[in-house]
TrEMBL record:
One of its GO terms (molecular function) is ABC-type amino acid transporter activity. Pfam families: ABC_tran. The keyword Nucleotide-binding applies. This is Unannotated protein. The keyword ATP-binding applies. Residues 6-248 form the ABC transporter domain. It is a peripheral membrane protein. Keywords: Amino-acid transport, ATP-binding, Cell membrane, Membrane, Nucleotide-binding, Transport. InterPro entries: AAA+_ATPase, ABC_ATPase_HisP-typ, ABC_transporter-like_ATP-bd, ABC_transporter-like_CS, MetN_ABC_transporter-like, P-loop_NTPase. Belongs to the ABC transporter superfamily. It comes from freshwater metagenome.
Amino acid sequence: MSTPMVQVENLSKSFGDNLVLDSLSLSVAKGEVIGIIGPSGSGKSTLLRCINFLEKPNAGVIVIDGERITIDSHDPSKLSGNKIAHLQSKVGMVFQQFNLFPHMTAKENIMAGPRYVLKEKAEIYEEKATRLLKQVGLPEKADAYPEELSGGQQQRVAIARALAMNPQVMLFDEATSALDPEIVGEVLAVMRTLANDGMTMLVVTHEMGFVRQVADRVIFMDDGKIVEEGDPAVLFDKPTQQRTKDFLSAILSHTD
């Protein structure tokens, strides 16, 4: 069996007395697309933020592309900044909000990471930005500023910006939830193309149709734990856990 691209072992995270992730374990193969669903407050976003160390877990192990970090439950602050930075360099993340630099054009936003963080040569990061704008369907918006772009266009630029850092894994945290319904499809189309191209992806979303069509595996979370996981067609149509049945019944009836 090949080495997982992402592995989480007994991951725990608390905010004060609130236990958000409860000894959660997860393994993701290279090229696998994981859909993560569940009610608000179930720990979905915190899981992604811990994988990328935007939140520091209290305990557990995180492995990204063979890079292993063990969190000391007695002293989580012992984590090495250099090791975390190296792990973060392998992971791209796209958020609900686009977080583009307002004073930079679309192309400049995409070039910023390769230019200032990766220290790539100008001809490399300029070609990369042009290529990525084409990949997300916005070649004509290279010189547009964020305020001149629609929400869907801004989110596609944000995806291109994350891809510019050459990630091994992409994390999507409700990437379409801030968008008007009529432009959600254009962002999902970019994500679908990434999946078809073999990118390893963890996707927190309420877009059940996207999960059913694109995900290799779907995970249902509640109370900081994985309640149930499996093939989307099986889990959506024949969930085995009552909590999963209740959630899907509520959310699918709401979207009909």
